[in-house]
């Protein structure tokens, strides 16, 4: 009743009012749609974030096989996997008796004992405790003296002078030499080479990796790479692990990236993993998710011009 009276009272203005009401409806509908649009945009963003997260996690979870697990003991003979040598070798100078004629990867736990690995790990801990990068990987190269310090490197022999003798002893250098010799022998036996025609090459370094974010590109250790391309002189790469996957750290598995899937080597203290350095052995290291991972890279060249002597105090 009141409504009818109001309509009558407004009389001629009714169409104007109806228009306003319609406009109001339209505006309300618009704002409802805008509300929906906000929701849709939010959903789209969520979908994008989820897809990116799924992609990023799948990059680290696309492992197809474990070549050697941490818990196994590969002894007394190395476990060897041959792979066809890449065609790249045709573009490199050949050194008979050393250049790979058989390519592949191998793992052995009987060349370096766990006790020796522990001594080397303590050396790495002492050396790297002197400085270290701001995140990601830190390295200590006993040959050149390079030690990660913040975003750069220092030369430990110059920076710490004689004090470095309290950190690295003659016994440490002797152990490095012994281990290097044994590694050279097992590589020569495995790939049928003349070990007198193989030379230690640089860089040869201790690495320490933890889960902190890398601040510079050279502290990013997880990118897929080919050692012959990255380091130039490498013909045979060897990694000596100084800590245990699963108990000292998580993540950080070594991954061979093959066309038909990936193959992992799980680090174990004293484990020696070696392979021909060409593109038949594209690889990466998974990001470390917890703890600290120590390893030494000890590699060999066939080119005497790229050979170096064992590390020693200057
Ligand atoms: O530490 C590792 O397992 C591998 C390191 C590596 O790929 C390299 O030093 O080129
Ligand atoms: Fe590498």
TrEMBL record:
Q: Which PROSITE patterns match?
A: FE2OG_OXY
Pfam families per the UniProt record, alphabetical: 2OG-FeII_Oxy_3 (PF13640)
Keyword annotations of the record: Dioxygenase, Iron, Membrane, Metal-binding, Oxidoreductase, Transmembrane, Transmembrane helix
- Answer whether the UniProt record assigns the keyword Hydrolase to this protein: no
Q: Which residues form the Fe2OG dioxygenase domain?
A: 202-303
Which domain of life, per UniProt?
Eukaryota
Q: Which Gene Ontology molecular-function terms are recorded?
A: dioxygenase activity; iron ion binding; L-ascorbic acid binding; oxidoreductase activity, acting on paired donors, with incorporation or reduction of molecular oxygen
Instruction: Report whether Transmembrane shows up as a keyword of the record.
Output: yes
Q: What is this protein called?
A: 2-oxoglutarate and iron dependent oxygenase domain containing 3
């Amino acid at each position: 009743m009141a409504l009818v009276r109001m309509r009558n009272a407004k009389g001629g203005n009714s169409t104007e009012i109806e228009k306003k009401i319609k406009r109001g409806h339209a505006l309300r509908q618009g704002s409802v749609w805008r509300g929906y649009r906000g929701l849709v945009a939010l959903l789209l963003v969520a979908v994008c974030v989820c897809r990116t997260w799924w992609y990023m996690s799948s990059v680290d979870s696309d492992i197809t096989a474990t070549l050697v697990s941490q818990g196994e003991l590969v002894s007394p003979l190395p476990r060897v996997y041959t792979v066809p040598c890449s065609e790249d070798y045709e573009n490199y100078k050949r050194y008979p008796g050393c250049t790979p004629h058989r390519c592949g990867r191998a793992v052995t736990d009987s060349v370096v004992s766990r006790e020796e690995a522990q001594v080397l790990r303590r050396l790495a801990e002492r050396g790297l405790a002197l400085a270290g990068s701001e995140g990601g990987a830190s390295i200590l190269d006993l040959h050149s003296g390079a030690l990660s310090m913040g975003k750069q490197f220092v030369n430990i022999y110059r920076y710490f002078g004689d004090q470095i003798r309290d950190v690295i002893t003659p016994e440490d250098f002797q152990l490095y030499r012994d281990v290097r010799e044994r590694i050279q022998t097992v590589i020569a036996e495995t790939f049928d080479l003349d070990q007198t025609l193989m030379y230690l090459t640089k860089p040869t370094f201790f690495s320490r990796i933890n889960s902190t974010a890398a601040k510079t590109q050279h502290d990013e250790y997880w990118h897929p790479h080919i050692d012959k391309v990255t380091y130039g002189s490498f013909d045979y790469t060897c990694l000596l692990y100084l800590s245990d996957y699963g108990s000292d750290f998580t993540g950080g598995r070594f991954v061979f990236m093959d066309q038909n899937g990936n193959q992992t080597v799980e680090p174990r203290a004293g484990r020696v993993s070696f392979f021909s350095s060409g593109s038949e052995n594209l690889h990466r290291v998974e990001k470390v998710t917890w703890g600290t991972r120590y390893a030494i890279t000890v590699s060999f060249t066939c080119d005497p011009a790229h050979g170096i002597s064992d590390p020693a105090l200057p």
